[in-house]
Amino acid sequence: MRIARTAPDFQLSLQGSIGLVPTMGAFHDGHLSLFRAARAENDTVVASLFVNAAQFGPDEDLDRYPRDEERDARLADEAGVDFLFVPDAEEIYPPGFQTWVEVESLGSILEGEHRPGHFQAVATVCLKLFNLVRPDRAYFGQKDAQQAAVVRRMVGDLAVPVEIRVCPTVRDEDGLALSSRNAYLSPEEREAALALPRALQAHDRSLLNGLEVDYFEEANFEPRVLAAAVRVGGTRLIDNVILEGDKP
Ligand code: AMP
User: Fold this and answer.
1) Which atom of ligand 1 sits closest to the CA of residue 25?
2) In 86-211, which ranges are E strands?
3) What is the pLDDT of residues 103-112, one digit of tens each?
4) What pLDDT score does 6 carry?
5) Which pTM was predicted?
6) Residues 180-205: what's their mean pLDDT?
7) Per-residue pLDDT reduced to its tens digit, 163-173
8) 71 by DSSP, 3-state: which?
9) DSSP string, 80-91
10) Does 203 participate in catalysis according to the annotation?
11) Is 180 in the pocket of ligand 1 (CB under 6 A)?
12) Which residue has the least CA distance to atom 11 on ligand 1?
Protein backbone atom coordinates (compact mmCIF):
# COMPACT_ATOMS: atom_id res chain seq x y z
CA MET A 1 0.00 0.00 0.00
CA ARG A 2 1.20 3.51 -0.79
CA ILE A 3 0.47 6.60 1.26
CA ALA A 4 -0.19 9.71 -0.85
CA ARG A 5 -0.41 13.28 0.48
CA THR A 6 -1.41 15.01 -2.74
CA ALA A 7 -3.57 13.92 -5.66
CA PRO A 8 -0.70 13.97 -8.20
CA ASP A 9 1.13 11.48 -5.92
CA PHE A 10 -1.28 8.74 -6.99
CA GLN A 11 -3.51 9.90 -9.84
CA LEU A 12 -1.34 8.49 -12.63
CA SER A 13 -0.93 5.16 -10.80
CA LEU A 14 -4.64 4.35 -10.67
CA GLN A 15 -5.51 1.47 -12.96
CA GLY A 16 -8.68 -0.31 -14.02
CA SER A 17 -11.84 0.21 -12.03
CA ILE A 18 -11.37 2.35 -8.93
CA GLY A 19 -13.16 2.04 -5.59
CA LEU A 20 -12.95 4.94 -3.11
CA VAL A 21 -13.70 4.74 0.61
CA PRO A 22 -13.84 8.20 2.22
CA THR A 23 -13.02 8.14 5.96
CA MET A 24 -11.87 10.27 8.86
CA GLY A 25 -9.55 7.55 10.18
CA ALA A 26 -9.52 5.78 13.59
CA PHE A 27 -10.34 2.60 11.70
CA HIS A 28 -12.56 -0.12 13.14
CA ASP A 29 -14.33 -3.11 11.59
CA GLY A 30 -16.96 -0.80 10.03
CA HIS A 31 -14.28 0.90 7.96
CA LEU A 32 -12.60 -2.43 7.20
CA SER A 33 -15.89 -3.84 5.88
CA LEU A 34 -16.00 -0.96 3.37
CA PHE A 35 -12.39 -1.57 2.33
CA ARG A 36 -13.16 -5.25 1.77
CA ALA A 37 -16.29 -4.45 -0.24
CA ALA A 38 -14.26 -2.06 -2.40
CA ARG A 39 -11.50 -4.67 -2.74
CA ALA A 40 -14.00 -7.28 -3.97
CA GLU A 41 -15.47 -5.04 -6.67
CA ASN A 42 -12.58 -2.96 -8.04
CA ASP A 43 -9.09 -3.27 -9.52
CA THR A 44 -7.72 -0.42 -7.42
CA VAL A 45 -8.85 0.60 -3.94
CA VAL A 46 -8.25 4.10 -2.58
CA ALA A 47 -9.12 5.01 1.01
CA SER A 48 -9.03 8.66 1.96
CA LEU A 49 -8.22 9.74 5.52
CA PHE A 50 -9.17 13.35 6.13
CA VAL A 51 -10.60 14.76 9.34
CA ASN A 52 -12.77 17.38 7.68
CA ALA A 53 -12.75 20.27 10.15
CA ALA A 54 -15.51 22.04 8.19
CA GLN A 55 -18.05 19.35 9.10
CA PHE A 56 -17.52 19.81 12.85
CA GLY A 57 -19.48 22.48 14.71
CA PRO A 58 -17.65 24.96 16.97
CA ASP A 59 -18.58 23.00 20.12
CA GLU A 60 -17.94 19.55 18.68
CA ASP A 61 -15.11 17.06 19.14
CA LEU A 62 -12.66 18.08 16.38
CA ASP A 63 -9.79 18.60 18.82
CA ARG A 64 -10.15 15.24 20.52
CA TYR A 65 -11.12 13.22 17.43
CA PRO A 66 -8.90 10.08 17.58
CA ARG A 67 -5.95 10.18 15.19
CA ASP A 68 -3.41 7.38 14.63
CA GLU A 69 -2.19 7.35 11.05
CA GLU A 70 0.36 4.58 11.58
CA ARG A 71 -2.22 2.15 12.94
CA ASP A 72 -4.72 3.17 10.26
CA ALA A 73 -2.14 2.58 7.52
CA ARG A 74 -1.43 -0.92 8.82
CA LEU A 75 -5.12 -1.84 9.02
CA ALA A 76 -5.87 -0.41 5.58
CA ASP A 77 -2.95 -2.31 4.10
CA GLU A 78 -4.14 -5.56 5.68
CA ALA A 79 -7.65 -4.99 4.29
CA GLY A 80 -6.33 -4.68 0.75
CA VAL A 81 -6.26 -0.90 0.23
CA ASP A 82 -3.81 0.10 -2.54
CA PHE A 83 -3.56 3.83 -1.83
CA LEU A 84 -4.19 5.66 1.42
CA PHE A 85 -4.81 9.29 0.49
CA VAL A 86 -4.04 11.54 3.45
CA PRO A 87 -4.40 15.09 2.15
CA ASP A 88 -3.47 18.26 4.02
CA ALA A 89 -6.27 20.75 4.53
CA GLU A 90 -4.89 22.92 1.68
CA GLU A 91 -5.19 20.04 -0.77
CA ILE A 92 -8.95 19.95 -0.14
CA TYR A 93 -9.49 23.63 0.60
CA PRO A 94 -6.92 25.62 -1.41
CA PRO A 95 -6.32 29.26 -0.40
CA GLY A 96 -9.31 31.36 -1.40
CA PHE A 97 -11.69 28.38 -1.33
CA GLN A 98 -15.32 29.55 -1.55
CA THR A 99 -17.40 26.90 -3.34
CA TRP A 100 -19.77 24.73 -1.32
CA VAL A 101 -22.36 22.11 -2.20
CA GLU A 102 -25.71 22.37 -0.44
CA VAL A 103 -28.15 19.45 -0.54
CA GLU A 104 -31.07 21.55 0.61
CA SER A 105 -33.87 19.47 2.15
CA LEU A 106 -32.12 16.17 2.84
CA GLY A 107 -29.22 18.04 4.40
CA SER A 108 -31.31 20.15 6.75
CA ILE A 109 -33.39 17.55 8.64
CA LEU A 110 -32.35 15.27 11.55
CA GLU A 111 -28.53 15.46 11.74
CA GLY A 112 -28.61 18.61 9.61
CA GLU A 113 -30.96 20.32 12.03
CA HIS A 114 -28.72 19.56 15.00
CA ARG A 115 -25.43 20.13 13.16
CA PRO A 116 -25.93 23.20 10.94
CA GLY A 117 -23.50 23.21 8.02
CA HIS A 118 -22.50 19.60 8.60
CA PHE A 119 -23.87 18.12 5.38
CA GLN A 120 -22.74 21.08 3.30
CA ALA A 121 -19.19 20.23 4.39
CA VAL A 122 -19.75 16.49 3.88
CA ALA A 123 -21.17 16.93 0.37
CA THR A 124 -18.40 19.34 -0.57
CA VAL A 125 -15.55 17.15 0.65
CA CYS A 126 -17.07 14.10 -1.05
CA LEU A 127 -17.42 15.92 -4.36
CA LYS A 128 -13.84 17.15 -4.03
CA LEU A 129 -12.59 13.62 -3.30
CA PHE A 130 -14.61 12.25 -6.23
CA ASN A 131 -12.98 14.82 -8.52
CA LEU A 132 -9.47 14.08 -7.25
CA VAL A 133 -9.76 10.27 -7.29
CA ARG A 134 -12.34 9.80 -10.10
CA PRO A 135 -13.65 6.54 -8.63
CA ASP A 136 -16.06 4.23 -10.43
CA ARG A 137 -17.63 3.35 -7.07
CA ALA A 138 -17.59 5.00 -3.67
CA TYR A 139 -18.41 3.14 -0.45
CA PHE A 140 -20.37 4.43 2.55
CA GLY A 141 -21.80 2.84 5.69
CA GLN A 142 -25.49 2.44 6.47
CA LYS A 143 -24.53 3.57 9.99
CA ASP A 144 -24.58 7.12 8.60
CA ALA A 145 -27.78 6.64 6.60
CA GLN A 146 -28.44 10.34 6.11
CA GLN A 147 -24.89 10.94 4.91
CA ALA A 148 -25.32 8.20 2.30
CA ALA A 149 -28.64 9.71 1.24
CA VAL A 150 -27.16 13.20 0.95
CA VAL A 151 -24.20 11.98 -1.11
CA ARG A 152 -26.44 9.90 -3.36
CA ARG A 153 -28.71 12.90 -3.93
CA MET A 154 -25.76 15.15 -4.77
CA VAL A 155 -24.35 12.59 -7.20
CA GLY A 156 -27.72 12.29 -8.94
CA ASP A 157 -28.46 16.01 -8.98
CA LEU A 158 -25.02 17.00 -10.31
CA ALA A 159 -24.53 13.95 -12.60
CA VAL A 160 -21.31 12.94 -10.88
CA PRO A 161 -20.10 9.75 -12.61
CA VAL A 162 -19.72 7.51 -9.56
CA GLU A 163 -21.81 4.63 -8.24
CA ILE A 164 -22.66 4.97 -4.55
CA ARG A 165 -22.51 1.69 -2.63
CA VAL A 166 -23.88 1.48 0.90
CA CYS A 167 -22.69 -1.35 3.18
CA PRO A 168 -24.42 -2.72 6.31
CA THR A 169 -23.78 -1.30 9.77
CA VAL A 170 -21.17 -3.31 11.67
CA ARG A 171 -21.94 -3.74 15.38
CA ASP A 172 -20.13 -4.99 18.44
CA GLU A 173 -21.42 -8.20 19.99
CA ASP A 174 -23.50 -6.19 22.46
CA GLY A 175 -25.28 -4.41 19.60
CA LEU A 176 -23.57 -1.02 19.78
CA ALA A 177 -22.74 0.22 16.28
CA LEU A 178 -18.99 0.61 15.83
CA SER A 179 -17.92 4.23 15.80
CA SER A 180 -14.66 6.07 16.26
CA ARG A 181 -16.50 8.04 18.95
CA ASN A 182 -17.13 4.92 21.08
CA ALA A 183 -13.54 5.40 22.27
CA TYR A 184 -14.74 8.39 24.32
CA LEU A 185 -17.15 6.27 26.38
CA SER A 186 -16.33 5.19 29.94
CA PRO A 187 -17.44 1.61 30.80
CA GLU A 188 -20.56 3.03 32.53
CA GLU A 189 -21.35 5.28 29.57
CA ARG A 190 -20.90 2.40 27.18
CA GLU A 191 -23.44 0.39 29.17
CA ALA A 192 -25.85 3.34 29.04
CA ALA A 193 -25.22 3.72 25.28
CA LEU A 194 -26.60 0.23 24.66
CA ALA A 195 -30.05 1.77 25.09
CA LEU A 196 -29.60 3.31 21.62
CA PRO A 197 -29.53 0.09 19.54
CA ARG A 198 -32.10 -1.47 21.86
CA ALA A 199 -34.56 1.42 21.47
CA LEU A 200 -34.12 1.40 17.70
CA GLN A 201 -34.54 -2.36 17.48
CA ALA A 202 -37.67 -2.27 19.65
CA HIS A 203 -38.98 0.95 17.99
CA ASP A 204 -39.42 2.21 21.55
CA ARG A 205 -38.20 5.68 22.37
CA SER A 206 -38.96 5.24 26.07
CA LEU A 207 -35.90 2.97 26.31
CA LEU A 208 -33.86 6.15 25.86
CA ASN A 209 -35.29 7.73 29.02
CA GLY A 210 -32.43 9.22 31.00
CA LEU A 211 -30.34 10.01 27.93
CA GLU A 212 -30.42 13.31 26.09
CA VAL A 213 -32.19 12.57 22.79
CA ASP A 214 -31.60 14.86 19.79
CA TYR A 215 -34.09 12.94 17.65
CA PHE A 216 -35.75 9.53 17.30
CA GLU A 217 -37.53 9.61 13.95
CA GLU A 218 -38.41 7.70 10.82
CA ALA A 219 -36.81 8.97 7.65
CA ASN A 220 -37.28 7.99 4.05
CA PHE A 221 -33.66 7.62 3.00
CA GLU A 222 -34.22 4.66 0.64
CA PRO A 223 -34.34 2.37 2.46
CA ARG A 224 -36.58 3.91 5.09
CA VAL A 225 -34.97 3.93 8.51
CA LEU A 226 -35.70 4.68 12.12
CA ALA A 227 -32.81 6.97 13.07
CA ALA A 228 -31.72 8.43 16.37
CA ALA A 229 -29.05 10.60 17.92
CA VAL A 230 -28.35 10.69 21.65
CA ARG A 231 -25.80 12.18 23.98
CA VAL A 232 -24.18 9.91 26.54
CA GLY A 233 -22.11 12.07 28.85
CA GLY A 234 -20.11 14.27 26.50
CA THR A 235 -20.37 11.87 23.57
CA ARG A 236 -22.91 12.17 20.77
CA LEU A 237 -23.87 8.87 19.12
CA ILE A 238 -26.04 8.17 16.07
CA ASP A 239 -27.53 4.92 14.83
CA ASN A 240 -30.44 3.66 12.76
CA VAL A 241 -32.29 0.51 11.76
CA ILE A 242 -33.79 -0.25 8.38
CA LEU A 243 -37.55 -0.57 8.71
CA GLU A 244 -39.04 -3.97 7.93
CA GLY A 245 -40.17 -4.44 4.38
CA ASP A 246 -37.54 -1.97 3.17
CA LYS A 247 -34.50 -4.23 3.52
CA PRO A 248 -32.48 -3.82 0.33
P1 AMP B 1 -15.99 8.00 9.40
O2 AMP B 1 -14.52 7.69 9.39
O3 AMP B 1 -16.62 7.87 10.73
O4 AMP B 1 -16.30 9.28 8.68
O5 AMP B 1 -16.68 6.85 8.54
C6 AMP B 1 -16.22 6.54 7.25
C7 AMP B 1 -17.21 5.61 6.61
O8 AMP B 1 -17.35 4.44 7.40
C9 AMP B 1 -18.62 6.23 6.50
O10 AMP B 1 -19.18 5.89 5.24
C11 AMP B 1 -19.36 5.57 7.62
O12 AMP B 1 -20.75 5.47 7.38
C13 AMP B 1 -18.71 4.20 7.64
N14 AMP B 1 -18.92 3.58 8.95
C15 AMP B 1 -18.66 4.12 10.17
N16 AMP B 1 -19.05 3.27 11.15
C17 AMP B 1 -19.57 2.18 10.53
C18 AMP B 1 -20.14 0.95 11.00
N19 AMP B 1 -20.27 0.69 12.29
N20 AMP B 1 -20.58 0.07 10.07
C21 AMP B 1 -20.47 0.33 8.75
N22 AMP B 1 -19.94 1.46 8.25
C23 AMP B 1 -19.49 2.38 9.13
Assistant:
1) 2
2) 137-141, 163-167
3) 999 999 999 9
4) 97
5) 0.98
6) 98
7) 999 999 999 99
8) helix
9) T-SEEE---HHH
10) no
11) yes
12) 141
